[in-house]
Design brief:
Pfam family, one: Transpeptidase
Enzyme class: transferase
Number of domains: 2
Distance between the termini: 126 Å
CATH class of the largest domain: Alpha Beta
Number of strands: 19
Structural class: alpha+beta
GO cellular component, one term: outer membrane-bounded periplasmic space
Keywords: Carboxypeptidase, Cell shape, Cell wall biogenesis/degradation, Glycosyltransferase, Hydrolase, Membrane, Multifunctional enzyme, Peptidoglycan synthesis, Protease, Transferase, Transmembrane, Transmembrane helix
Largest sheet: 5 strands, mixed
Number of helices: 23
Organism: Candidatus Scatousia excrementigallinarum
Length: about 725
């Protein structure tokens, strides 16, 4: 009895406890129930939405006649179409007519498990998923051929997780709808392979002028390597990379035992024999610039397939009229000087120093002959580098009106010379730059230090290696025309470095802006005083000095450059609103006949700038007035730079004994007026039949500066217009 009562009492206590717990947690349980219901509703809604999305897709069976109809175009800033991807070749091919070697090459390169998976590769997907999660964005695709087909036919080219998920689902749907062979056939007929080729048959026609079935094993391997990056691996754009990629494909084929060792070794040594550049390129109004734009788009996350098939409107910064002027100026002036062989080349780069917009861009004179971009090539700049020496001097407190000794100088075993070993005695610093004195440039770099000159060049945007050597004062180092021109921009805009850019905005086919150029970033690297002084000095180069041929009838400043033996000639100059650099030379670095910076480059620059500066009128530089004093000065009233100070930790010798980068500037002799100077030079030119050879080094004797009272007639004076 007692036991029973205890049990009943215990049971009553348990029931009471249950009752109490139920009351406490009833609210939480209700919330959980509601959450489950809401989650289920969301899943159902998502399923309905996704089914609706799938139902909106075109039926697979109707896509066999698909042709790309969404056109991407590049526009100039003033609305002209400079490139369109409609100039494509589209050729269908039946899989029965596709060589087995090509199918094997494509599978080995793009999707080795193609015949075994259901639209996606689990192993590759897992690997890429981890990489993408770690990066927080899509950085690795691991797309199968079926996924690539799904993207081409159905999806956008946005790089998002959402699109990747949809790509997987659509790929699985395709696999359930059509056969593997049909998938492969549709992919081969629709994939973009560069140079306007849609499909493998079109690629064979464009690159080799053959049917795919007639292509050799190395030719098939080259085509099979293109889908990953058509612009990068196109043999028209970069033969070296195209061959490297082809050999990678051949290596994968050998590894998967599709070809023998003998076939592999023979194919990778084969020469690539291309057809002529297709019409696709000739219709391009600014081909070198468009290649540059494609590279910039790749940096933004687009590949060439995205661009060619995405239906984008890419609005660039280029000024159409200026670009046309560039193309015409190069051909006209090079033809006038007999520079008509394919080896004779020129490059022009023009941009705004105010906002960085690229206005014109030509990496050569004929894109159909060569696609090598000489705007980005590294070539010696000659005396066009001297302004960085002078800028360093201005930053150190040297004045344009300070006197400098234009007399022989020797540093160790190196004795730089002026043209024809002519020297002017004591002259103002600005005059030394105007006539491009070599020895004065060397004296200045001694005065301010090699380190200071390199620092100025670096902060202004010269990134190519610069030797810690006095010879850099004469432009012995190679630089890119792109960087050289950009650096001059700081002289034009008050000392600010501006990064040039090419793309204003990108719009989808529906008008949605997916990219807009950010606000231009600028940084002051030179004082306003230095920029004003450099501009005042460089104006004399055009008004009275070696760049007289570049006169455009409005305020402008610039500098000529000619390397030893006439191998490179350049002119870089600017107005307040436009900076333009011009290079002329031979691709094989051979000698040009009597071509200096003051001839063809200056004339090209003149023709380009007349058009480029039209929108801005006859505006002058908004700088503090810099007065350049007359040549004569009272003895002892002005600092004379003539010593040879040695900077601590700097080399005083150089192994370069023959790099006398010369400027052909004649002595003024007895001429007393600009007219007489010009007449004397023209007489000299009429007698000159060939480039003046450089004299053998002679023992150098340090000359004493001439008394100020006996100095030549004050300058600025007119210097021949065709000189460097």
């Amino acid at each position: 009895m007692v036991r029973i009562r205890r049990t009943e009492k215990h049971m009553s206590a348990k029931n009471l406890a249950k009752k109490n717990i139920s009351k406490k947690d009833v609210g939480i349980m209700a919330d959980l129930r509601n959450l489950v219901i809401f989650g289920a509703a969301c899943v159902l809604a998502a399923g309905v939405a996704f089914n609706l999305y799938l139902s909106s897709l075109s039926p697979i069976k109707n896509l066999e006649d698909f042709k790309p109809n969404i056109v991407t175009k590049f526009y100039s800033s003033d609305g002209e179409i400079i490139k369109t991807f409609t100039a494509y070749t589209f050729s269908k091919i039946d899989i029965k007519d596709v060589p087995e070697d090509f199918i094997n090459a494509l599978i080995a390169t793009e999707d080795k498990n193609f015949y075994n998976h259901k639209g996606y590769d689990i192993t590759g997907l897992a690997r890429s998923t981890v990489q993408n999660i770690l990066a927080g964005r899509v950085v690795q695709g691991a797309s199968t051929i079926t996924q690539q087909l799904a993207r081409i036919l159905f999806l956008s080219n946005e790089r998002t997780f959402d699109r990747k998920i949809r790509e997987l689902v659509v790929a699985a749907r395709i696999e359930k709808t059509i056969s593997k062979d049909k998938i492969l056939e549709m992919y081969m007929n629709n994939v973009y392979l560069g140079s306007g080729a849609y499909g493998v048959e079109a690629a064979a026609e464009i690159y080799f002028n053959k049917k795919l079935k007639d292509c050799t094993l190395p030719e098939l391997a080259l085509i099979a390597g293109l889908p990953q990056a058509p612009s990068v691996y196109s043999p028209f754009n970069n033969m070296e990379l195209a061959v490297k990629r082809r050999n990678q494909v051949l290596g994968r084929m050998y590894k998967m035992k599709y070809i023998t060792r003998e076939q592999y070794e023979e194919a990778k040594e084969a020469k690539v024999k291309l057809t002529s550049v297709p019409r696709f390129y000739t219709t391009n109004k600014a081909p070198y610039f468009c290649d540059y734009v494609l590279k910039e788009l790749e940096k933004l996350g687009f590949d060439e397939t995205d661009i060619s098939q995405g239906g984008y409107k890419v609005v660039t910064t280029i000024d159409y009229k200026t670009q046309v002027a560039v193309n015409e100026a190069i051909l006209k002036n090079m033809r006038n000087y007999g520079l008509t062989k394919p080896n004779h080349q020129a490059a022009v780069f023009s941009f705004s120093p105010i906002d960085g917009k690229i206005l014109a861009y030509a990496g050569g004179k004929d894109y159909t002959q060569t696609q090598y971009d000489r705007v980005q090539a590294i070539r010696p700049s000659g005396s066009a580098f001297k302004p960085f020496v002078y800028a360093a001097a201005m930053e150190k407190g040297i004045s344009p009106n300070d006197m400098i000794e234009d007399a022989p100088i020797k540093i160790g075993d190196w004795a730089p010379r002026n043209y024809a070993s002519k020297y002017r005695g004591e002259i103002p610093v600005y005059s030394a730059l105007m006539v491009s004195s070599n020895v004065c440039a060397v004296r200045l770099i001694q005065e301010v230090g090699i380190r200071a000159v390199i620092q100025v060049a670096r902060v202004l945007g010269i990134t190519t290696p610069l030797e810690y050597d006095y010879t850099i004062a004469l432009g012995s180092n190679g630089v890119k025309l792109f960087e050289l021109t950009r650096a001059y921009g700081a002289f034009a805009n008050g000392g600010y470095v501006v990064q040039p850019y090419a793309i204003e905005r990108i719009e989808t086919s529906r008008g949605k802006v997916v990219y807009r150029a950010p606000k231009t970033k600028v940084s002051r690297q030179l004082s306003l005083k230095t920029a004003a002084e450099m501009t005042a000095m460089l104006k004399t180069v055009i008004e009275h000095g070696t760049g007289a041929a570049a006169r455009i009838g409005k305020p402008a400043a610039g500098k000529t450059g000619t390397t030893d033996d006439y191998k490179d000639a350049s002119f870089v100059g600017y107005t307040p609103n436009v900076v333009t650099g011009v290079w002329v030379g031979n691709d094989d670095n051979s000698v040009m006949r009597s071509i200096q910076g003051g001839t063809v480059p200056a004339l090209i620059w003149r023709d380009v700038m007349k058009v480029a500066t039209q929108p801005y009128g006859n505006v002058d530089f908004n700088y503090p007035e810099i007065e350049l004093t007359a040549f004569r000065a009272k003895p002892g009233s002005i600092k004379v730079i003539k010593e040879e100070p040695k900077e601590e930790n700097e080399t005083t010798t150089t192994e370069t004994t023959n790099n006398n980068y010369t400027e052909q500037v004649p002595m003024q002799n007895e001429a007393t007026t600009p007219k007489e100077v010009l007449q004397n030079f023209r007489q000299q030119q009429q007698q000159q039949q060939s480039p003046v050879s450089q004299p053998s080094p002679q023992p150098v004797v340090q000359q004493q500066p001439q008394p100020a009272a006996k100095a030549p007639t004050p300058i600025p004076m007119a210097i021949p217009e065709s000189l460097n």
